Amino acid sequence: MKKIILLMLCAIHIFLSIGLFFIGKQYAFIPASTNGWLPSLLISIVLFIRLLWKPVKSPTLIMIIYLFCILTASVIVYSDLPAYTYEKATQKIEQETGQAARLETSNAPKGHHKAYFIYTEQGQYIFDIHTGEYMERASWK
Which UniProt keywords apply (predicted)? Predict the structure, then answer.
């Protein structure tokens, strides 16, 4: 029974890691806490496979620690998320400036630390991810 619970925790961890990728994608991977989705996914898959084939010596302790780690990581990620997604920031700039945002297909950055870079035909805007304030970047061409 304890082995089944551990396998279920691993499966939840796998789904949370995949969800972390999609959350990070919405925020253009600006929050540092969303960048760990791949190592998290790989660890959960390896742990799942190991639990399938090898017995665990102290499953109760491992269950408690594993559950605590998953909950702690979830709280950290949730508290680190900005108030605006990249899409919402783009919509806000389009509505308030009347300029249509263009999608960057090149390797132009979409943001850095606490700001998104939103490109329009007329210029580039720097958008604060927490307050929703923005300004036009003067030196962009």
Answer: Membrane, Transmembrane, Transmembrane helix
Q: How far apart are CA 75 and CA 41, in angstroms?
A: 18
Question: Which residues, in sequence order, are bridge partners of residue 136?
Answer: 125
Same domain assignment for residues 54 and 100? no
Listed residue (140, 121, 59, 128) closest to 89, CA to CA: 128
pLDDT of 82-104, one tens digit each?
A: 999 888 998 999 999 888 887 76
Q: How far apart are CA 104 and CA 120, in angstroms?
A: 10
**How many Å apart are CA 128 and CA 56, to the nearest integer?**
47
Residue 92 structural domain: 86-137
